[in-house]
Write a structure and sequence with these properties.
Layout lengths: L10 H16 L31 H4 E4 L4 E10 L11 H10 L7 H4 L6 H5 L5 E9 L8 E8 L12 E9 L10 E8 L7 H5 L15 E2 L6 E2 L3 E10 L5 E5 L4 H14 L11 E3 L7 E4 L9 H9 L8 H14 L4 H11 L4 H4 L8 H13 L6 H9 L6 H10 L4 H10 L5 H13 L6 E3 L8 E5 L5 E4 L6 E5 L9 E5 L4 E5 L7 E5 L6 E4 L5 H9 L15 H13 L6 E4 L4 H12 L31
Parallel strand pairs: 14-16, 15-21
Antiparallel strand pairs: 1-10, 2-3, 2-5, 3-4, 4-9, 5-6, 6-9, 7-8, 10-12, 11-12, 13-14, 15-16, 17-18, 18-19, 19-20
Helix pairs in contact: 8-10, 9-10, 10-12, 13-14, 13-15, 14-16, 15-16
Length: 627
């Protein structure tokens, strides 16, 4: 019999065995198919897409959410038509208007003390159901005003919206304005304006837009060869934002300390103002490591685009400003493609950065030079004035309008005023208009405002010029500008306007100008002898009759006044040219609609995808060719 002799066991072996046994005891028997092993969290290795010269700025570390044009819509009712409305409103629209529009009837400004019902109004041929649309500017805050487009509801027999007034309508964001329960972000109301200059740009709404009217529905105007769709109108500055549109900064990579540094940098660059409810930048509760909510300061409400660009190019850690400005100057010389972003980096750095890039004011390459001049002008550096004046006065330069735009944004300066006054006599029409805009922004006494009536919704101005002309705005603030003292009505004329409700007659220079006007809905006409000079004639058209004024007047709306001037121009009754402002309202709305509608396969030549448009058009810029 063999006797087993016990051997000593190493404590390390015992310890290892115990650990192994414990692990086996705690581990489940077999593999559970319902539970996958936990995955390791991999760090985000995606490279930052921003160029390296932006390193250290807000835009390098984060993106901006909610910044873009917002399409708003709503159904409303236009009143005050001259029998050109309709009562055959589609049933869904009629039901909506009866429900929502009835809330406005107690308003004495609408009802005039009369007992009204929405059913009676919708059955009246002097009213029309309409669709109201607009593109709200990026970053708009409460109180921001914008232009709106008003069109007769498809399926109705409305013939014309001319002379009408839109009742207050609530506008909601998205393609289905007027949906019950949708949150209202804006309102619109006011006198309608039908653009007599560009029928084609109004009919552009019918190209690829579901509710647009085809060109064949347009009615001929009183001018031969001109087709104007009077079922589509606009209201200049007729919309107003009722709630701030949210702006949010989203960090590319969540990080508490980086988010805190960005907040401190923004609030340091844009400190809270006395009437500001909260700080400019604040973290979002529950997501403070990746999201920051932005409040536009009250002093920046009129220039939200400048505010946003400056904010996104702000340095997160301030210090060495002049050195940083000099580094950017070297970068833009070597990389002129980045000139726009470099300009905003300089602006965000502030006035202390000027000495770091002012040497580029005389650089031989135009792009770095213009980039520096733009930044210097925005920072109020008076040293840029002679350079901008030289560009504006160079008839062969393609940068004249850019230079004039920068000059108009600078603080008032006698040197700027003198240059702008001289440019009122320039051969180029657009330069004369830009010179007026600059003088108006500078509050120069050369711009004389003609007082019509405090209640009137448009302004009339007169400026001296060797080239008489009349200029009318088509967007934002309605405004008529008379250039030169010689602008007036012809010595011999015969004009019919406003669907024959206004006739103008003059047989010789010795005879006075005679006008015969009939109000809407009236069969009786009244005769007048208005002034023949253009400023006095426009005052006669636009000023509202008053018991306190001895001067006769008609009290026409802006749209009606512009139409009379246009008809007089086309019937050769003006001794000067009539120039409209470049129009971008239609383009902005169509762009917003396209952004909200998914791309579909084009099926006809009228599809917007088949039109010649740039594929890299930035947001907010026109992608429909001018008519």
């Amino acid at each position: 019999m063999v006797k087993m002799v016990p051997q000593s066991v190493s404590p390390f072996v015992i310890s290892g065995s115990m650990v192994l046994a414990t692990m086996l005891a705690l581990s489940p028997v077999g593999c559970s198919p319902d539970k996958a092993p936990p995955e390791m969290v991999q760090p985000d290795l995606t490279p930052n897409p921003m160029p390296r010269f932006l390193r250290g700025t807000v835009t390098y570390e984060a993106t901006l959410l909610g910044y873009g044009q917002t399409l708003v819509q709503g159904y409303g009712i236009v009143v005050g038509l001259d029998g050109t409305g309709s009562s055959d409103t589609p049933l869904p629209v009629r039901a909506y208007l009866e429900r929502e529009g009835g809330k406005l009837l107690p308003d004495p400004e609408i009802s005039g003390g009369r007992r009204l019902t929405m059913q009676a109004l919708l059955d009246d041929r002097n009213t029309a159901a309409v669709l109201v649309q607009a593109a709200v500017p990026p970053g708009a805050v409460k109180g921001t005003r914008f232009d709106v487009i008003v069109s007769a509801v498809p399926g109705s027999s409305t013939r014309s919206l001319e002379g009408g007034r839109l009742w207050t309508v609530n506008l909601t964001s998205g393609l289905m304005g007027g949906v019950q329960g949708a949150r209202s972000v804006a309102q619109a109301n006011g006198d309608l304006f039908i653009n007599p200059f560009a029928a084609d740009d109004l009919n552009a709404l019918g190209e690829g837009v579901e509710w647009g009217l085809p060109a064949e529905d347009a009615q001929p105007s009183e001018s031969p060869g001109v087709v104007v769709d009077r079922r589509i109108a606009r209201i200049l500055n007729g919309g107003v934002v009722t709630a701030d549109l949210p702006l949010m900064i989203q960090l590319r990579t969540p990080n508490y300390s980086r988010a805190r540094a960005i907040i401190d940098a923004i609030n340091g660059r844009f400190p809270q103002e006395p009437s500001q409810a909260r700080r400019t930048a604040e973290s979002v509760p529950g997501r403070s490591d990746e999201q920051i909510v932005i409040t536009v300061p009250p002093s920046r409400h009129e220039q939200t685009d400048v505010f946003v660009e400056t904010l996104m190019h702000t340095q997160i850690f301030q210090g060495g400003i002049e050195l940083r400005a000099d580094q950017l100057a070297r970068w833009v010389v070597e990389n002129p493609v980045d000139a726009r972003s470099v300009t905003w980096c300089w602006v965000a750095l502030g006035e202390l950065a000027i000495n770091g890039f002012s040497h580029l004011y005389t650089h031989t390459d135009v792009i770095p030079r213009l980039s520096a001049l733009n930044a210097g002008a925005r920072l109020g550096d008076p040293r840029v004035i002679p350079h901008l004046v030289a560009l504006a006065q160079d008839a062969n330069s393609s940068l004249r309008l850019d230079a004039l735009g920068r000059m108009s944004e600078m603080p008032p300066s006698p040197r700027i005023s003198v240059a702008l006054r001289q440019l009122l006599d320039d051969e180029q029409l657009d330069v004369r208009v830009a010179a007026f805009n600059g003088l108006f922004a500078q509050r120069d006494p050369a711009v004389r405002q003609v007082t019509l009536d405090p209640r009137q919704e448009f302004d009339v101005f007169a400026v001296p010029s060797e080239h008489p002309m009349v200029y009318a705005t088509l967007q934002k603030q309605p405004r008529i500008v008379v250039f030169g003292s010689g602008a007036g009505l012809s010595d011999r004329l015969l004009v019919s306007a406003l669907s024959d409700r206004l006739q103008l007659v003059r047989h010789s220079p010795e005879e006075p100008l005679r006008a015969r006007y009939r109000k809407k809905g009236s069969m009786e006409a009244v005769q007048y002898e208005p002034p023949a000079d253009l400023v006095g004639f426009i005052s006669f058209l636009g000023a509202r009759p008053s018991q306190y004024s001895l001067d006769p007047s008609l009290g026409l709306s802006y749209g009606e006044t512009v139409r009379v001037l246009y008809e007089a121009h086309t019937q050769r009754a003006l001794n000067t040219i009539f120039a409209p402002e470049h129009n971008t309202l239609i383009d902005a709305v169509v762009n917003s609609i396209r952004a909200a509608v998914p791309d579909e396969r084009p099926e006809s030549n009228r599809d917007p995808a088949l039109r010649e448009t740039p594929t890299d058009a930035p947001a907010g810029e026109s992608i429909i060719r001018d008519r």
